[in-house]
Amino acid sequence: ILVPRRETCNIVHMSRLACLVVLALGLGCGGDGDGAATCETFSSCGGDPVGSWQVTATCLTGISEDEEVFLEQCPGGDFSISAETAGEFTIRQDGTFDYELTLTNDIAVGYSPDCTAGLTSCEQIDDACTGDPQTGCDCAFSKMSVNTQTNEEWTTSGSTLLLDGVDWAYCVQGNRMALQFDEEGGLVYTFSFARQ
Predict the structure, then answer these.
(1) How many whole angstroms separate alpha carbon 136 and alpha carbon 109?
(2) Which residues lie across from 176 on neighbouring strands?
């Protein structure tokens, strides 16, 4: 029986910030509803990213590798992820940046009865699972992490912001900034920020 990975990231191929996003974000959006860019409205436009920024929203669209594998093995199951991000991101004129982000990721997995055949207890999948294998099991996982990075390098080229070796589409308009990272495999991560 497939249990979703609680942490997945290959740091060799992406920066720590991109890895942090991969670990932290999930399907769904979170934000403060103040009109900041969302998954549906993001459009890269470039601009001057220098400043101190506060995260106001996070969003991930697409299907994660975990969800894809789970649904292949348990087609009648459900898989959902929600994410909340809080923290600060400082981009300095000298070409360096810092961030401190608190990330909370909640994963809900529903195993249909055809996926739990042979089990006598849902806890056999994981301690976070409840229900009756005869009618299906529901599992809830949560992860919170605080991540800090200092004095990493950044540059821009048109509407691309290169953060520690990873390209992000970005747009700065007034006191708002949005960053978007398109990971191979279909996931697109979007952060919205307000200038502090």
Answers:
(1) 10
(2) 173, 194
Long-range pairs for 66-70 at CB < 8 Å and ≥24 separation? 66/4, 66/5, 66/8, 67/27, 69/2, 70/2, 70/4, 70/109
Contact 31/60 with Cβ under 8 angstroms?
A: no
- pLDDT digits 0-9 by tens, 18-62: 333 333 333 333 334 444 445 567 899 999 999 999 999 888 787
SS (HEC) of 118-154: CCCCHHHCCCCEEEECCCEEEEEEEEEEEEEEEEEEE
Both tokens assigned to 135? 């009618």
Q: Tokens in use for 94? A: 């000298």
Joined together, the tokens standing for residue 143 give 């992860």
